[in-house]
Amino acid sequence: MPRMLDVSDDVRAEIGDEEADRLLAGENAPGSYDCTSCRTPGNTDQERTSTVLFVGQETAVLAFAHATCVPSQVVPVSEDQLRGAVRSITAEEVAPPAPEPPPAADTQAVLGVTSGVVLVGGEARPALVIEPTEPIARPGIGGPGDDFLPLLTEQGFLPVYDLGRPPAPIPGWSVLLAAGQLHAVLMPAPGGGAPVAWWQAHHPMPVSDGWRSAVGRSQQVLLYAASAGTIGTQPREDQLRTALDRAAARGALVGAAMPLAGT
């Protein structure tokens, strides 16, 4: 029985016409599945379903998602990220990959990431808040300085003074969400080519149902960044918003809007 599958031209080019036709005919496609974006159940017999192909340097994994969550697409990822996606999709016990240091830093600082839903212009928007554990110096320059925000503004992030308006989009950056979990923030590769990880989770990072629902509606994530010690650990979203408002009022916050990887 034919499935209600969407196979984009990019996915077809990667898997070949024969395999794409088998999927559309229902030979190799599952009936039921867990959406790779929102992680809620889906059924290819009852609702439009997108084929999402995660492609690494040597391997590829085909996943399925509600067409209302993400379109059919090819998502380029590193082999480490692909192993994380496979681990989330199949729940296999695989040793976690070693974390990669963020390209923006020449220090032992770790980038802390907090997810939360932020009310922007009366709309609930999915947000990520990035804050290093220690000051980050410009690569190749020692000393106690903190160049984290200047480094980001050089990449295209802009100061945020009012959280009532979303930050501007930044070209080439995206957020990798697979199997309903956060895997990485991707940035353009120097010199072109496939995007590279600016931040990568040690393990796939869970996000709330509300966050997944919000990103499913907007297909866009708001990323805010602040220097070490500006935001701190906030256990509730209202407290996170208060800390962000304080940082914005002090001119200590930058931000950018970015799509899900591959969209």
Number of strands: 14
**Could you give the distance between the termini?**
29 Å
Specify the number of helices: 6
Shape: globular
**Helix-strand sequence:** EHHEEEEEHEEHEEEEHEHE
pLDDT < 50 runs, ≥5 residues:
90-108
Amount of helix: 10-25%
Overall average residue pLDDT: 80
Task: Detail the topology: elements first, then pairings.
Elements: E1 5-6, H1 9-15, H2 17-25, E2 32-34, E3 41-43, E4 49-55, E5 60-66, E6 73-76, H3 79-90, E7 111-120, E8 123-132, H4 148-155, E9 158-159, E10 174-178, E11 181-187, E12 196-206, H5 209-218, E13 220-225, H6 237-249, E14 254-259
Parallel strand pairs: 1-4, 4-6, 8-13
Antiparallel strand pairs: 2-3, 4-5, 7-8, 9-14, 10-11, 11-12, 13-14
Write up this protein.
With 263 residues, this protein is of the alpha+beta class. It folds into 2 domains: 5-76, no CATH class; 111-259, no CATH class. The chain contains 6 helices and 14 strands. The protein has helices at residues 9-15, 17-25, 79-90, 148-155, 209-218, 237-249, and strands spanning 5-6, 32-34, 41-43, 49-55, 60-66, 73-76, 111-120, 123-132, 158-159, 174-178, 181-187, 196-206, 220-225, 254-259. The strands form 4 sheets. A 5-stranded mixed β-sheet has the order 7-8-13-14-9, sandwiched between helices. Strands 1, 4, 5 and 6 form a 4-stranded mixed β-sheet that branches. Strand 10 (174-178) and strand 11 (181-187) form a beta hairpin. Helix 1 (9-15) packs across helix 2 (17-25). It starts with a strand and ends with a strand.
